[in-house]
Design brief:
This protein has 2 domains: 168 residues, 2-Layer Sandwich (Nucleotidyltransferase, domain 5), CATH 3.30.420; 167 residues, ATPase, nucleotide binding domain (Nucleotidyltransferase, domain 5, 2-Layer Sandwich). The chain has 356 residues and is an alpha/beta fold. The two termini are 16 Å apart. The longest helix is centred in the C-terminal third of the chain and has 29 residues. It is built from 11 helices and 12 strands. The protein is globular, with a radius of gyration of 20 Å. It binds 5'-O-[(R)-(carboxyoxy)(hydroxy)phosphoryl]adenosine and zinc ion. 5'-O-[(R)-(carboxyoxy)(hydroxy)phosphoryl]adenosine binds next to helix 5 and helix 6.
Length: 356
């Protein structure tokens, strides 16, 4: 059973100073060590990301043990750098927001333990947030006036979920993938095409010189009336296509294959997202998570939103893939609603959003 953040207990009052000042966000759920600082108005003062791509590239994917080790080696310098870039000192930090889950257990533990240590030493509140809450918060980072009631598509390496949100801490789940996440489909497809880790951005780049319509891969809508997704069949069809070509695709063909494969993912994401907008009676759509950095997805979403008069929020590229500014933003909102997480909290690798 996936877990949810347990009911909040207030941390011992004698231990905590009144929450004020800037929010330090920390994110270590997967393969980015990140620290960011937001000021009292929610403006990003610094956003530092140390990527582990070079560590994992030889293995073609993220190796959990290496991820944890790398977070331990990096987190202090990354946090120090976030303070320096914001031109702040420790006493300027009023609270700490940290990713509590979901993610790799060992990787989460590094960030959470570090955050607990800082909160204890500085006597400031700690708030554990869901990584998904963070991605969703990124939709308001550049435009705080974006409607709070909207449809949200979270598309990342681990999630392809559609929600209706009102930003009051409640999310209504509209649909989700039955098997692979869209990011996983990108990464596995890229691997089959012989592209380097991380596969999503590499496939995006290759597809830019290809024809998205020459090779048609299947679009999967599982149950057409619903809002769920499935990408495992698409992966298999790419595998069979490449086996038939017996590895003899020329460079232009490779680009067409990448573009056709990407189109099959992106078309389904766009159609489902707009279906969610219409069915839930909202007029705004936010698309967040690593895959929202995809150039073809961004172009098709913008085109369709303009044609249908729907307000669209796509985070700036720095806030699409994992970062700590989004964690600080989600933490700041949670703190404003009075949420504080006790220092004996645990990392929850299968943490789910509180859905209703
Ligand atoms: O949100 P994220 O950084 O980490 C998770 O929470 O999983 O998302 C990472 C995923 C990876 O699967 C990566 O390949 C994909 O996002 N991704 C992309 C692009 N940039 C990142 N997929 C397609 N096109 C991109 N430009
Ligand atoms: Zn993420």
């Amino acid at each position: 059973m996936p877990s949810q953040i347990p009911p909040r207990k207030t941390a011992p009052a004698h231990h905590i100073r009144q929450s004020h000042g800037s929010v330090l966000g920390l994110e270590t759920s997967c393969d980015e060590t990140a620290a960011a600082i937001l000021d009292t108005q929610g403006r990003v003062l610094s956003n530092i990301i140390s990527s582990q791509h070079d560590v994992h590239r030889p293995f073609g994917g993220v190796v959990p043990e290496l991820a944890s080790r790398s977070h331990i080696q990096t987190i202090e310098a990354v946090t120090r750098s976030a303070l320096d870039h914001a031109r702040l000192q420790w006493p300027d930090i009023g609270s700490i927001a940290v990713t509590q889950g979901p993610g790799l257990a060992g990787a989460l533990l590094v960030g959470l333990s570090y955050a607990k240590g800082l909160a204890y030493a500085l006597r400031i509140p700690l708030v554990g947030v869901s990584h998904l809450e963070g991605h969703i918060a990124s939709a308001w980072m550049d435009d705080p006036s974006f409607p709070t009631t909207c449809a949200v598509l979270v598309v990342s390496g681990g999630h392809t979920h559609l929600y209706r949100t009102s930003l009051d801490g409640h999310y209504h789940l509209l649909g989700r993938t039955w098997d692979d996440a869209a990011g996983e489909a990108f990464d596995k497809g890229a691997q089959m095409l012989g592209l380097d880790h991380p596969g999503g951005p590499a496939l995006d780049r290759l597809a830019q010189s290809g024809d998205p319509h020459r090779i048609r891969f299947p679009r999967s809508y599982v149950n057409r009336a619903g809002l769920d997704f499935s990408f495992s069949g698409l992966k298999t069809s790419l595998l069979y296509y490449l086996q038939d070509r017996k590895g003899h695709a020329t460079a232009p063909e490779q680009a067409d294959i990448a573009a056709g494969y990407q189109e099959a993912i992106v078309e389904v994401l766009v159609n489902r997202a707009f279906q969610a907008v219409h069915e839930s009676g909202v007029t705004a759509l936010a698309v967040v998570g690593g895959v929202s950095a995809n150039s073809r997805l961004r172009a098709l979403l913008a085109e369709r939103a303009a044609a249908e008069g729907i307000q669209l929020s796509l985070p700036a590229l720095d806030y699409c893939t994992d970062n700590a500014a989004m964690i600080a933003a989600a933490g700041r909102m949670a703190l404003m609603r009075g949420r504080v997480t006790p220092l004996d909290c645990e990392a929850i690798s299968d943490l789910e959003l509180p859905v209703c």
